[in-house]
Design goal:
Length: 440
């Protein structure tokens, strides 16, 4: 099968080069998003989806096996998960999963935990310091295993930190000053922890020292710094230093991404403290050593969460940052290693979470933002022409695209006709491999 030999002979050699990261402004200054071009990114009209009170987080995945990506949203008034199925012409009325009174569902992720072909859900129940699985059988969800994590979890990411090819869920826990690593073993969560500084708000995963093992970074809000934690490949981590943002800044969102496309994972940290101090700190990585940061203003107030993706499809990782107190999102285009001035996009009140996905059929990955105090989820349609090697259109070029192409190729699907000559053969593999190597 193509998947086996291509992955063994090609994917590992290319992975480090192409991975893009797999997870008060006045009213006059807020640009309405209606078919406008923001720097090199072309967005269509914003679509708002009504949610219950105080939506917290969202994730995009196919939940009913029809090949269309659906939407799951957590809300805490009352405590539940909303499942919006995609009909191909829009999202239907949501189904409801109750999580229990007072549980406070927050961060959410999707993964096929039991390898049955259905995407399951993993949810952080913030008020009870719990992580819980909801198992999906043919589009019907039921509560599954749960585990105890640290106090007041503020963020969650998904990675494979122990190399067992199963997902690990890492949370940043503000009140216990640690990260929880909830490793899925096929049936349950095995939870461990690693200490950080005071009040960790954000966490990111990436190989910053180039040893092929997943490392972590945690933003310590009270300490005004970032903890660097080197992974041993078996799920253990050791602190190897901190990166300071300093007074008056307090760090929040964080993401690893290769800003300069030199093969090293740089670190982008969003920090704010008042109306003036809202910046993205970019710590550039040279062979595992981070240099002094360069600062780029966000143009918003109380800037928080950040995602990295090639939004303008020029091969560089751009940034999207949420500005909680100015009801806006900042798009910082990457101009060959330097971040451009932010383009400001209006959001709902108190934007709390940003996700990537493809719900409305955009040619490139869309941005999905939950507006906590506006009770909406906003979909920002990205009209930028797609990257050829991003075959699953999620905004990243990584192993998931390889898996999707390999699946099509093995099945002889017309979707694997990469060169458009009407045949599925080795020429399609060659051209996909070249595009995959380039990243975009």
């Amino acid at each position: 099968m193509l998947r086996n030999w291509l992955r063994n002979d090609t994917l590992h050699a290319l992975k480090g080069k192409m991975m893009k990261i797999k997870h008060s402004i006045s009213a006059l200054a807020l640009a309405a998003l209606a078919g406008s071009a923001l720097a090199g990114v072309s967005f269509g009209p914003r679509t708002d989806i009504a949610a219950a009170q105080r939506p917290s987080s969202s994730v995009v995945a196919d939940f009913n096996g029809d090949g269309l990506r659906d939407l799951a949203v957590t809300t805490d008034t009352p405590d539940k998960i909303l499942i919006y199925l995609n009909s191909g012409v829009g999202l239907g009325a949501p189904a409801t999963l109750l999580t229990g009174a007072g549980t406070g569902p927050d961060s959410i992720a999707a993964s096929d935990l039991d390898a049955d072909g259905d995407n399951d859900l993993v949810v952080v129940l913030k008020n009870t310091s719990t992580i819980r699985a909801y198992m999906n059988t043919g589009g019907v969800f039921a509560p599954g295993a749960s585990g105890v994590i640290g106090a007041d979890p503020r963020a969650m990411i998904v990675s494979d930190v122990n190399g067992d090819l199963r997902p690990d869920f890492i949370t940043a826990n503000r009140d216990s000053n640690d990260l929880s690593i909830a490793s899925w073993n096929g049936a349950a969560f095995a939870v461990s922890s690693v200490a950080t500084g005071e009040e960790p708000y954000g966490v990111a995963a990436g190989d910053f020292n180039g040893d092929g093992k997943v490392d972590l970074a945690a933003t310590n809000h009270r300490d005004r710094n970032v903890s660097l934690l080197a992974g041993n490949g078996a799920g253990g981590f050791a602190g190897v230093g901190t990166l300071n943002v300093g007074n008056p800044y307090r760090p929040d969102g964080v993401v690893f991404t290769d800003i300069e496309r030199d093969g090293d994972m740089d670190l982008a940290v969003v920090a704010s403290d008042n109306a003036v101090a809202n910046q993205v700190f970019v710590f550039r990585n040279a062979a595992g050593v981070f240099g002094a940061p360069t600062l780029s203003p966000t143009g918003g107030m109380n800037s928080g969460q950040v995602v990295a993706a090639d939004l303008d499809r020029d091969g560089d990782a751009d940034l999207a940052v949420l500005n909680v107190d100015s009801a806006s999102m900042s798009i910082l285009e990457n101009l060959g290693g330097t971040l451009a001035a932010p383009a400001i996009v209006a959001t709902g009140a108190t934007p709390s979470h940003i996700a990537m996905g493809n719900l409305v059929g955009s040619p490139s990955a869309e941005l999905i933002v939950t507006g906590r105090d506006s009770n909406i989820v906003s979909i920002y349609e990205n009209l930028t022409p797609p990257c050829p090697s991003d075959v699953n259109a999620d905004g990243f070029v990584n192993g998931d695209d390889f898996d999707q192409f390999a699946s099509w190729f093995d099945a002889g699907s017309a979707a694997a006709d990469f060169n458009g000559d009407g045949f599925v053969n080795g020429n399609d593999y060659d051209e996909f491999a070249q595009a995959f190597d380039l990243g975009c």
